[in-house]
Write a structure and sequence with these properties.
A 5-stranded antiparallel beta sheet has the order 2-1-5-4-3, sandwiched between helices. 47% of the residues lie in helices and 28% in strands. It is an alpha+beta fold. The protein has one domain: Beta-Lactamase (2-Layer Sandwich), CATH 3.30.450.30. The radius of gyration is 14 Å and the shape is globular. α1 packs antiparallel against α3.
């Protein structure tokens, strides 16, 4: 897990973001950095992702890869890591979106390689229940 937290910390620090949360599709936190109420945020990330998938499928646009929400004070970004894992990022309003997307893509690649190499990760997450 330390490798995942390091990646999330670098993502937050390099993009002027507030928090990053890595969740599974069921809304369980895998790793997080600087997230207040991380369990609640994790459930909301999974719910938003699920609604986005349904909406996209209903419009015959296929699956989603990423999406973001612009708020009055920043952004909420979601990006698929793999079929069952989502990275959520809470960014400040003065962030540079192009740079943020570049770091987000690079972070997802790193996370994906760790998850693919760690066959015990699913068991560790499920043991929390």
């Amino acid at each position: 897990m330390r490798g995942l937290e390091r990646i999330l910390r670098n993502l937050v620090d390099n993009t002027n973001s507030e928090a990053a949360v890595l969740v599974n599709s069921e809304g369980l936190t895998i790793a997080s950095v600087h997230a207040e109420n991380e369990d609640r945020v994790a459930v909301m990330i999974a719910s938003l992702h699920s609604m986005g998938e349904k909406f996209s499928n209903d419009l015959s646009k296929g699956g989603i890869n990423q999406f973001y929400i612009k708020t009055d004070t920043g952004y909420i970004l979601l990006k698929d890591v793999n079929k069952n894992t989502i990275l959520g990022l809470i960014a400040k309003e003065d962030t540079k979106l192009g740079l943020l997307m570049m770091y987000l893509d690079a972070s997802v690649k790193e996370i994906s390689s760790i998850l693919n190499d760690d066959s015990t990760l699913d068991l560790n997450v499920r043991s929390i229940i």
